[in-house]
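Hi support team,

I've been running sequence recovery on a batch of backbones for a student project. Most finish fine, but this one hangs at about 90% for roughly twenty minutes before it completes. I'm not sure whether the input is malformed or the queue is just slow. I've pasted the structure tokens below so you can try to reproduce it. Let me know if you need the job ID as well.

Thanks,
M.K.
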């Protein structure tokens, strides 16, 4: 496993993914390898969290945390000199929620995404979001990279 460098913080992450401002949810990369990434997040406690609804942050919002970890992983695997690639989360499957909400948890969330398979344009990840030793949600996600260049974009009249 590659250890995360001390500067893989929120600003470093925001420079590598399209999510900006309060929508950039991750605080730091805590570890990574070509096959997985681990991140830390505390934004779930923010009363102004952009994904809050009816005054709470449901556990399904953890899918967005995982998706951002996958985007950061893609940037790390591509390397510092590669042009960033646009990724699209095309499906999530086998999602199990082990909690109702995230905003009532003190301390940091851990986010892990593991690359199960893939090629130059499609990647399948398994993901978990956890707090302490407790798994809050888990599932699998498919990501398509550079979908516009593959001719898969649909335009409606």
């Amino acid at each position: 496993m590659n250890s995360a460098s001390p500067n893989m913080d929120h600003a470093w992450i925001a420079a590598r993914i399209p999510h900006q401002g309060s929508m950039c949810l991750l605080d730091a990369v805590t570890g990574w390898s070509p096959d997985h990434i681990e991140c830390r997040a505390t934004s779930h406690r923010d009363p102004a969290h952009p994904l809050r609804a009816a005054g709470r942050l449901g556990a399904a919002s953890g899918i967005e945390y995982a998706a951002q970890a996958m985007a950061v992983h893609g940037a790390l695997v591509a390397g510092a000199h590669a042009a960033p690639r646009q990724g699209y989360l095309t499906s999530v499957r086998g999602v199990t929620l082990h909690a109702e909400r995230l905003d009532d948890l003190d301390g940091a969330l851990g986010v892990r995404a593991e690359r199960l398979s893939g090629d130059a344009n499609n990647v399948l990840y398994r993901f978990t979001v956890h707090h302490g030793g407790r798994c809050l949600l888990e599932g699998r996600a498919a990501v398509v990279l550079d979908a516009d260049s593959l001719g898969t974009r649909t335009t409606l009249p």
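--
Follow-up from support: It reproduced on our side and the slowdown came from queue contention, not your input. The two ends are 48 Å apart (CA to CA). No action needed from you.
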